[in-house]
Write a structure and sequence with these properties.
284 residues, alpha+beta, Rossmann fold, Tumour Suppressor Smad4, 5 helices, 17 strands
């Protein structure tokens, strides 16, 4: 069994975990796989170093070392390749990670199959412009937001062709159940169990007295466009990656992706345990 270690080795906390991590995988009859570029930071006789890009066809499980950002970086690659992923937390929160560094011995369960898998829905977003279309995958959220010094645009939200909301706002967050505990939560959205299949719409600072999040079925198709006001400009961010401009004559269509992300839980912690331990306790 080959385990691809996905991490930013320039971070001290991540680098400190690697010796024990690689040794435990080896002792359990598994092979730690790393890119050749990682050898300048850490080299072990028990690890296999492959030239990049590494083909995920040769990998059984992806293992991230870092925080939720590292999982977001690799989740879509894992999902598209049909491979499960497990995370070890060396970040600040690590809400989606399964293990803390002191729990590395539990990695032996990967060999025996003694773990559960949470199937997470992804969203597909397609931006339609006059002569082109571009599609993106999101595990957490798709955020539409006005430029810093822009006037408030008026957003129009449709579900399956029917207008459900028109509002002036700083922006909109469309999130998956996984993303409901990220930016959408900070903006006042509800917490949704991650195995559910639905999409959440949370307005950002809407200029209305009737400002409420909405939940759509995973079978719905959500379309968003906007009218500008005195040069309003709107940008789109997909899982935190920004720099996508949405023109006033463009529209973005969001639906459930057929691609599924599989996240491994190896220590038996439920979503609600993670919720209580990581989100409902004050940060240290």
């Amino acid at each position: 069994m080959k385990i691809l270690i996905c991490s930013n080795l320039e971070k001290e906390k991540t680098l400190a975990v690697l010796p024990d991590l690689v040794n435990i995988l080896s002792e359990s009859g598994m092979t730690a796989v790393m890119p050749e570029s990682a050898a300048k930071f850490y080299r072990s006789p028990f690890a296999e170093y492959l030239s990049e890009p590494i083909s995920l066809d040769k990998i059984d499980i992806l293992l991230t070392v870092g925080g939720d950002g590292t999982i977001l970086k690799w989740a879509k690659k894992a999902a598209l390749a049909g491979k499960p992923l497990i995370g070890i937390n060396t970040g600040r929160l690590g809400f989606m990670t399964s293990l803390e560094p002191e729990e590395l011995q539990l990695l032996s369960n990967l060999k025996t199959g003694n773990y559960s898998v949470s199937k997470r829905m992804l969203m597909e977003a397609t931006i339609y412009s006059e002569n082109s279309s571009v599609s993106y995958l999101a595990l957490n959220d798709i955020v539409l937001s006005k430029d810093s010094y822009s006037k408030l645009p008026e957003f129009s939200v449709c579900s399956n062709g029917f207008v459900v909301s028109r509002l002036r706002a700083d922006g909109l967050i469309l999130s998956t159940p996984t993303g409901s505990t990220a930016y959408a939560l900070s903006a006042g959205g509800p917490i949704i169990e991650p195995d559910a299949e639905c999409m959440e719409l949370t307005p950002l600072c809407a200029h209305t007295l009737l400002n409420r999040p909405m939940i759509f079925s995973g079978n719905d198709e959500i379309s968003v466009s906007y009218k500008g006001y005195e040069g309003s400009a709107v940008n789109v961010s997909v899982d935190g990656d920004s720099g996508i401009y949405l023109g006033e004559n463009d529209r973005i269509v969001i639906s459930k992706s057929p691609v599924v992300f599989r996240l491994i839980d190896i220590n038996g912690n439920s979503f609600y345990n993670a919720l209580n331990n990581k989100l409902l306790k004050p940060l240290k």
